[in-house]
TrEMBL record:
<dbReference type="InterPro" id="IPR007197">
    <property type="entry name" value="rSAM"/>
</dbReference>
<keyword id="KW-0004">4Fe-4S</keyword>
<dbReference type="InterPro" id="IPR058240">
    <property type="entry name" value="rSAM_sf"/>
</dbReference>
<protein>
    <recommendedName>
        <fullName>Radical SAM core domain-containing protein</fullName>
    </recommendedName>
</protein>
<keyword id="KW-0408">Iron</keyword>
<keyword id="KW-0949">S-adenosyl-L-methionine</keyword>
<dbReference type="InterPro" id="IPR013785">
    <property type="entry name" value="Aldolase_TIM"/>
</dbReference>
<keyword id="KW-0479">Metal-binding</keyword>
<keyword id="KW-0411">Iron-sulfur</keyword>
<dbReference type="InterPro" id="IPR034405">
    <property type="entry name" value="F420"/>
</dbReference>
Length: 280
C-alpha cells in the first residue's frame, strides 16, 4: 500500500475536466455462458456440447419499447456465450437497436467475436464490418480485464490471450469502431500488474476510452476476494492519467460513494456511467 500511496499524496487540485454523467441502457442478450471465468458475476454455465436446455436469447421485440421510450447517451449490448443463436442474430439485433435510437452503441466485445469466429469460421474483419454496418459505434472492452497472461490463465483459462484481445481491438479501429479498453481492479493489485497492463495497452493506436472496473465478487467464484480499496482505485487512475493525459477514464456510478466519486474525479476520472435502464 505504501507504494500505491505515492500516487495520491499530491495536493487536491481542481479537476482538469468536467465530470460527464453518461445515461446508459444495458442490454444483456443471454446470461448463459460456457467460459466460467472466475470474476464473472452474471453468467450461468451452459456447456458447448452435451445435453443442455438453454433459454433463447432476448428477442428484438422485447427491447423495442425500452430503446425507443427514452433518451440515452450510450447503449451497451453484451451477452454470455452459447451456440444456440447464430452470429447473424446478433448483427440483426444491433441493427434493430440502431433503427430505434440515435444513441451510440457499444456492441459486444472481442470475446464474443472470437467465439463466433471459431464456431462459424467467419473472418474477424468481416464480423467487425458487419457490426459497423449494423450501427455499432464501438466494441466493448470485455476480455481486456487485465492483460497479463499468467493472471488470465488462473482466473479465466478459456478467455482470449492478451495478444488476441489487442489484435481484435486494432482490427475494430480499422473497421471504424471506437477503441475502448478496461482495467479490472481488485484488492491487492500491485503496481507491477498495473504497469504491465498499461504497457500492453500502448499497442492500441489512438486509444480513446479506458473503463476502470472494481471487482464485484458477491455472486462470482471469487467471492472470497475483497473489493478494491479506494486508494487502489486512485492509484490506477493516476497511473492511467500519467501515461494518457487525454484519454477518457470511465467508472460506473453505482459502485461509488459521493466522496469517492469526488476524489476520483479530481484525480482524473471524467466520465461516469449511470444505468438508466437494464434489460436481460
Amino acid at each position: 500500500m505504501d507504494t500505491l500511496l505515492r500516487y495520491v499524496v499530491e495536493p487536491l487540485l481542481p479537476p482538469a475536466r468536467p465530470l460527464n454523467m453518461v445515461r446508459v441502457l444495458r442490454i444483456t442478450t443471454t446470461r448463459q455462458c460456457w467460459m466460467q471465468c472466475a470474476f464473472c458475476d452474471f453468467s450461468q454455465y451452459a456447456p458447448l456440447v452435451g445435453h443442455h436446455t438453454a433459454s433463447p436469447a432476448i428477442s428484438p421485440d422485447h427491447i423495442q419499447q425500452a430503446v425507443s421510450a427514452a433518451s440515452y447517451d450510450l447503449i451497451k449490448v453484451r451477452g454470455g456465450l452459447t451456440v444456440w443463436e447464430p452470429w447473424s442474430y446478433f448483427v440483426q439485433l444491433v441493427r434493430h437497436i440502431s433503427s430505434q435510437s440515435r444513441a451510440p452503441i457499444q456492441a459486444f466485445s472481442a470475446v464474443e467475436l472470437m467465439h463466433f469466429h471459431r464456431v462459424e469460421k467467419i473472418p474477424l474483419r468481416d464480423m467487425l464490418d458487419e457490426l459497423r454496418w449494423a450501427g455499432a459505434t464501438s466494441l466493448g472492452p470485455g476480455g481486456g480485464e487485465l492483460l497479463v497472461d499468467e493472471w488470465r490463465e488462473t482466473v479465466a483459462a478459456h478467455r482470449l490471450r492478451s495478444a488476441e484481445w489487442l489484435s481484435i481491438q486494432q482490427l475494430a479501429m480499422e473497421s471504424g469502431l471506437q477503441s475502448r479498453a478496461m482495467l479490472l481492479v481488485f484488492h491487492g493489485i500491485t503496481p507491477e500488474l498495473i504497469q504491465s497492463h498499461l504497457h500492453a495497452l500502448q499497442a492500441i493506436r489512438d486509444l480513446s476510452v479506458i473503463e476502470i472496473k472494481p471487482l464485484r465478487t458477491a455472486s462470482s467464484p471469487m467471492a472470497y476476494w475483497d473489493p478494491p480499496h479506494l486508494l487502489e482505485l486512485l492509484a490506477v487512475v493516476q497511473a492511467i492519467r500519467t501515461q494518457w493525459p487525454h484519454v477518457d477514464i470511465v467508472m460506473n456510478r453505482t459502485l461509488l460513494s459521493e466522496d469517492a466519486l469526488t476524489l476520483l474525479h479530481h484525480h482524473g476520472v471524467n466520465h461516469v456511467y449511470i444505468t438508466a435502464k437494464e434489460i436481460g
